[in-house]
Amino acid sequence: MIQKSHITQFQYAAQHKPNQLIYGSGQTAIITGWTVKQAIAKHLQTSDYAVIGQLYSPTRGINLLIRNLLLNPHVRYLVIINATKEDRNAGASQCLLDFFNSGVEENISDTGRKSWVIRSQIPGYIDIEIDINALEKLRQSLEVVEAKSISEAVEKIQFYAQKPTIEPWGTPLEFPMLTIEPTVLPGTRYGHRIEGKTIAETWVKIIHRIKTTGTIRPTGYDGKWQELIDLMAVVTEEPEDFYFPEPNYLPIDRSFLTEYISQVLDDAPSREGVKYTYGQRLRSWFGKDQIEQVVDKLIGEIDAASAVMTLWDVKDHEKGGSPCLNHIWLRVVDNELSLTATLRSNDMFAAWPANAMGLRALQKHIRDQINQRSEYDLRMGPLMTISQSAHIYDDTWSNAEQLIKQQYAAVCRKLDYADPAGNFLIEVANGEIVVTHTTPGSGEIVGCYSGKNALKLVREICTASPAIRPDHAAYLGMELQKAVDCIKIDKPYVQDQ
Ligand SMILES: O=c1ccn([C@H]2C[C@H](O)[C@@H](COP(=O)(O)O)O2)c(=O)[nH]1
């Protein structure tokens, strides 16, 4: 028997993320978690549902979803899909269920703001500006059900669609929302190099660079982001078992990482509602196992500059949701295996640490395979990511600011004094300044400058060695001026080391 839905004509008015939703005319809101919303919509008629939307993150998504639901009191049923590994990792569907089952209490959010904190094992916050009575009314007025698969969800949605229309639970409710425009400092927009020993340290520097000098632009997702174009991160010494700070300020932990590494390294069958995994693209998408290919390539030709893997399929332009990670190169220099990856678009706050750790695991896997299958004994070289659009979404700006406040100074204090551009020894001889440029480590002489004018000398040095660190250049400026002053009053000059 074909079931006919009860015909209703409600209109869902979304104030938040309006372009990310699929609209219907019924009374059920469908929260699909990480399952793509079209995978549900195609099994339904528009009269079966009020709205279909994805919910990725409990800390970023639930607040906006609740605000939209308060504006649409005709929504009386909620079907929450909690089906995929990603849903379990993110915990957003679970946290939303906990909101309806257990409610909220007044507390402090992860950004230190007074908030309604959801009574859940998973952190989830709702703005304190929303009246608690409205939240309680919403909890009491909606019938909420969890679905563990697409088919179970479709069955439940169709069950509700058969029911007679119910009155809205009240009138639409809207509450004020705090928005803060960040101050942006001047800086270059294109091409940035940020280096750190660990992924954690590099991440803090990346967030600081984007948050202070990134351009504020609209995103494709009904909001804004702060963005720099072509940001290269160089991670030099991430340990093989990964460094997690104590307490852990990264947006991922070890258990998430284990699952994520498998998404990067292992093949995965195509599944309805799941777009792709990086492992699938690398292992089988193009009919070749590209990881095996690069291992074989380098064993056969260790100096090859063609050990490259691609995740981008030219057909990706035909559908939305193309992979963010596009190309990966492996290179051996001085017995060291480095990995370089390009990402067309990169959420530097929420996704980069996982992307970087997943790539580091891939780099180690390839190094181990080469060492096991050949006479080579390669060391781990640096990991480099080049993010074309390196951005921070507006809904994590306050988290980013909090991170900078708590970690940036400490990370900068760890700076070691060895500048890869080398050392500059300053002396005074025959009434003139003499600067000798030496290599770091071995101290081999590679250049010499002389003169009486400190500014002119600094400019010459910076022109000849443009990769000199800014703090090193500033130090040279001060020392050279000190040397000039000594010459003027005929006092011996000693360089401050
Ligand atoms: O491994 C990933 C996958 C996704 N994203 C981010 C980048 C974008 O912010 C968003 C994807 O949006 P589209 O470019 O596909 O619209 O997710 C990452 O940073 N890394």
From TrEMBL:
Taxonomic path: Bacteria, Bacillati, Cyanobacteriota, Cyanophyceae, Nostocales
Organism: Okeanomitos corallinicola TIOX110
Residue span(s) of domain Thymidylate synthase/dCMP hydroxymethylase: 274-410
DUF4346 domain location: 419-496
This protein's UniProt keywords: Methyltransferase, Transferase
InterPro entries: PterinBD-DUF4346, Thymidate_synth/dCMP_Mease, Thymidate_synth/dCMP_Mease_dom, Thymidate_synth/dCMP_Mease_sf
Pfam families: PterinBD-DUF4346 (PF14251), Thymidylat_synt (PF00303)
Domain of life: Bacteria
Protein name: Thymidylate synthase
